[in-house]
């Protein structure tokens, strides 16, 4: 006779099996005790915020890179040595990389006392990233250098936002390089399919340029949704909102070229559709708009630099800063 019971656990199951005519099995061993949950992090108070100098309405450097070159030919080129030195400088100043997507989320999760920095790479140049035949980041590329610096400085997260056009990194026909980036915590963002000047394009051309590259990224990385756009040439469409929303795409933010740090994402001055960037540059023409100048200014006592309170659920800031943006009002903690 077939047994049609659905069994529970423990002793009830033992009795049920015996009633069905089978040998009674050995009762299972009791489950090991569950580990005690980790203690919740201490809530930020005005006193702890003051102690670490928290200012989450301070300014954030969003650095813009294009390519590495042993012999730079333009202000958009940096030598590998210059690039390495800049990352080392950031690590020594207790900057922690975040992505543009994390910036526009208005929830920055870095240690107390640290400062966020956004590393952005435009154009998908081969000197930014390539994979070896063994599937590893190629030595000498910007991403490999970033990984090496991060390995030497554990608080320095190896993340960045990489903005690509069609055929990135000199050709990535199967999307392997883009998938590697996404799988390792990097943001893959849209830079339009053909590096289209969205200011001079018609509205139809602009939306097509954005939507086509969005589709290429999602095709290369199944299940991935690009979250931000870097505007080619820093040029905004005539209808500014078109950069972040249109047929086939919706983004949380868009990057300009700019020449200075971004306001905090919880500042009333922050416009996610027009985030300024700082060109990575130390010397030469217009160096006063470059990263060396701005990192020195931000690091000064009066630099008004974003400093974390260590808790992404609160936005701590000196009372003299005024009020937070409405989007962050519920998390604000003035001291």
What does this structure look like?
With 335 residues, this protein is an alpha/beta fold. Helix content is 24%, strand content 13%. Strands 1, 4, 5, 6, 7 and 12 form a 6-stranded parallel sheet that branches. Helix 3 runs parallel beside helix 5. The longest helix is centred in the middle third of the chain and has 18 residues. The radius of gyration is 25 Å and the shape is globular. The termini are far apart. 41% of the residues are buried.
Low-confidence stretches: 1-40
Structural class: alpha/beta
Percent range of helical residues: 10-25%
The best one-word shape is: globular
Distance between the termini: 76 Å
Overview features:
335 residues, 13% strand, 8 helices, globular, alpha/beta, single chain, disordered N terminus, two-stranded parallel ribbon
Short description:
The chain is α/β, with parallel strands linked by helices and 335 residues long. The protein has helices at residues 11-19, 46-52, 80-92, 100-104, 142-152, 176-183, 203-220, 291-299; strands at residues 62-65, 67-68, 77-78, 95-98, 115-121, 161-164, 187-190, 228-230, 245-246, 249-250, 253-255, 278-279, 315-317, 332-334.
What's the arrangement of secondary structure elements?
Blueprint (H helix, E strand, L loop, with lengths): L10 H9 L26 H7 L9 E4 L1 E2 L8 E2 L1 H13 L2 E4 L1 H5 L10 E7 L20 H11 L8 E4 L11 H8 L3 E4 L12 H18 L7 E3 L14 E2 L2 E2 L2 E3 L22 E2 L11 H9 L15 E3 L14 E3 L1
Parallel strand pairs: 1-5, 1-12, 2-3, 4-5, 5-6, 6-7, 8-11, 13-14
Antiparallel strand pairs: 9-10
Helix pairs in contact: 3-5
């Amino acid at each position: 006779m077939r047994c049609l019971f659905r069994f529970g656990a423990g002793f009830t199951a033992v009795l049920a099996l015996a009633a069905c005519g089978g040998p009674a099995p050995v009762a299972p061993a009791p489950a090991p005790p569950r580990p005690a949950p980790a203690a919740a992090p201490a809530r930020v108070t005005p006193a702890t915020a003051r102690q670490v100098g928290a200012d989450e309405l301070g300014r954030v450097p969003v650095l813009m890179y294009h390519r590495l070159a042993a012999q730079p030919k333009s202000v958009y080129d940096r030598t590998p040595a210059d690039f390495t030195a800049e990352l080392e400088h950031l690590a020594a100043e207790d900057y922690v990389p975040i992505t543009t997507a994390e910036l526009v989320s208005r929830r920055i999760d870095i240690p107390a006392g640290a400062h966020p920095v956004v590393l952005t790479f435009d154009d998908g140049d081969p000197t930014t990233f390539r994979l070896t035949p063994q599937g590893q980041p190629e030595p000498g590329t910007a991403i490999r250098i970033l990984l090496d610096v991060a390995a030497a400085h554990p608080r320095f997260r190896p993340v960045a936002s990489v903005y690509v056009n069609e055929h990135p990194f000199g050709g990535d026909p199967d999307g392997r390089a883009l998938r590697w980036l996404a799988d390792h915590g990097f943001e893959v963002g849209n830079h339009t399919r053909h590096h289209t000047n969205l200011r001079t394009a018609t509205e139809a051309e602009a939306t097509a340029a954005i939507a086509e590259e969005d589709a290429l990224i999602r095709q290369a990385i199944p299940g991935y949704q690009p979250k931000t756009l870097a505007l080619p040439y820093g040029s905004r469409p005539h209808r500014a909102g078109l950069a972040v929303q249109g047929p086939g795409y919706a983004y949380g933010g868009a990057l300009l070229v700019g020449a200075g740090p971004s306001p905090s994402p919880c500042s009333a001055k922050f416009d996610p559709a027009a985030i300024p960037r700082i060109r990575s540059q130390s010397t030469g023409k217009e160096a006063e708009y470059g990263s060396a100048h701005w990192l020195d200014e931000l690091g000064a006592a009066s630099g008004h630099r974003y400093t974390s309170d260590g808790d992404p659920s609160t936005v701590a800031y000196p009372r003299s800063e005024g009020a937070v943006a409405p989007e962050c009002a519920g998390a604000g903690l003035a001291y």
